[in-house]
Amino acid sequence: MSKNKQAEAASAIAHNTYTKKELAGYLTGLAGQNIIYNIIATGLAFYFQSVIFLPAIAVSLIFALARVWDAINDPMMGTIVDKTRTKWGKCKPYLMFVPVVILVTTILPFLNGMYAEPNNLHEVTLQDSAAYVDYVDSDLTKELEYDGVKYLFVPAGGTWELQKDADGRVLTDEDNNIIKNKVMIYTASDKAPVTDKALAETVLQEFQSELGFEKKTGGAAIGIIAWAAISYVLWGMTYTIGDIPLWGVTSLMTEDQNDRAKILTLARAVANVGMIGTLFTMIAPAFQGMFKAKGMDEAHSLQAAYITLSVVMTLFASILFQFAGLSVKERVSSKNEKTYTIRENFKIMFGNKPFRQILISGILRSPIQLLGIVAMTLIMYYFFNNDIGKTLFVNNALNVNLVLKILILVVGLFGGMIGFPLFVPKLINKFEKKTLYNFFTLVGAIPFAFIFIFFILSKGNILTWGGMIVMSILFFMAGASMGSLNVLQSVMIADCVDYEEYNNGIRPDGVFFSGQSFITKLSAGIASLISGAVYAFVGFSDKNVALLNNALINGADFKVYNDGKFAAAMFFLISIPPAIGMALAAIPTIKYALTDKEHTRILDELVERRAAAAEAKAETEE
């Protein structure tokens, strides 16, 4: 039977399905939930590493260990959902009450102390060599040895303290940057000024690194890392309580496989729209000025800005999330289903061959999550030099060229991730789902690999018109594959629920869609380990990040900083590991166990069974 005839056969039977109002409410809630997810998925790693300066290895371990717990927690939550029996159904109750809980747990990880706090010795800049004076012994002099040579550091203004006004607020310039102390550097052996600017800057960075930080130790350090770990795990648990019912309810909102494909396609598109949450990292510094005006230094004002924006954005997103619980209606009855223990549900999950194949494929595709984890850090540093305002506005005029170049890249990425997947339902009507799934995994690996290849060929500078157009095309192709796979994965998991109901008489919506949540979270954990290892290898960690931030404020260019190693590491992370993961993901599904023809037959028979059961029940009640 052809794909079109299968679709016609499926539509020949009357199906109970959702209304437009229910669909709109569901998608609104999904958008809010995904804004929250992206605040954490893309913003928290940057916040941990570049704002409160946690060590890179600690950040990667926190994310990875949280995923290990999710391996247990997600199926547990799926089991709880499938055991739930209320007048609203089994998924809707959670969607009604969980948004307010997630509101609180999303904010908690940002309410942490700073692992490495810059002090006044960090907030210094070089004095012009022509303004040096003869060295005079002073109690203010600081000594540091670098590369076998001892150097003396003297504040040009006669103090290491930052300049403050009468109210004790740190003074800033017209661009709202803290007015830094000038420092003069001398060689200790002959008290001669260091006039070689490159050497002086290198020595000053070592000075800032060694003496310009007060890194937490002992209980304080443990407390900060523990808060980061516990609050993140708590967020993951509460997010799961909402995520599994939110996706699981899609198979309960309709009996029509075409309507199911439609809602899951729109859901995946809206989930990508929820990626506006990734702008969290870019928007936060805009709040920094109000805290500098209150006298906060660079580091603490940035932290306060992130905390403020986390509250504002999460509150907005949680209100949107609430619409799902208020709108959805479960139309596929599960009242008479037998419930199972967690152990039994694990057996069901892994005993269902097509679901097992999708689960393994999703895990192999884990490195694709690096795109979300690294993207905002890459954008902030590579494209904006970690200062959006200064980069976008040159001499008080908008940098139109840069805006247009970035817009080209954004259109490519989001056009691929959001626009192209909208055609997946039409492709499903023409091609086998297995064929489409394997096609997008294998073909999608190619543009991902070429992102890093092109970066190397361009010698680290893609900010040309030609470079941005090429990157836009590559990101469109990569995004289209990634977005289409997300849609197909959800549709195929819903098919597996039908497969299980047909064979064993149960609908494990919660447990099976907990598998989707598990794939997402485990993937993020694996991706975090990969990023942590690469960052540790190139030295992009704790105080080195703070030194980088300080160097950029003083005019350094991220693209060539540290010989371009940081930039290359980020482009490598969003390219080569995802390409490998995409290629490997096709292995488990090459011989996928559930054909579309078989699923159409199963679904039609299930609809007939339900109709017969409902009719028998009505006759009994009469």
Task: Give an overview of the whole structure.
The protein is mainly alpha-helical and 622 residues long. Helix content is 65%, strand content 5%. It is built from 23 helices and eight strands. It has a four-stranded mixed sheet with strand order 2-5-4-3, with helices on one face. Strands 1-6 form a two-stranded antiparallel ribbon. A hairpin with a 2-residue loop joins strand 7 and strand 8. Mean pLDDT is 84; it is low at 5-14.
Tell me the layout of helices and strands:
Layout: H1 3-11, H2 20-51, H3 56-83, H4 92-107, E1 116-118, E2 124-126, E3 142-146, E4 149-155, E5 181-187, H5 197-211, E6 213-215, H6 218-248, H7 257-273, H8 280-283, H9 288-292, H10 298-327, H11 342-351, H12 353-364, H13 370-383, H14 388-392, E7 393-394, E8 397-398, H15 400-419, H16 424-430, H17 433-457, H18 465-504, H19 509-538, H20 542-553, H21 565-573, H22 576-585, H23 596-621
Parallel strand pairs: 2-5
Antiparallel strand pairs: 1-6, 3-4, 4-5, 7-8
Brief write-up:
This protein is mainly alpha-helical and about 625 residues long. Helices cover about 65% and strands about 5% of the residues. β7 (about 395) and β8 (about 395-400) form a beta hairpin.
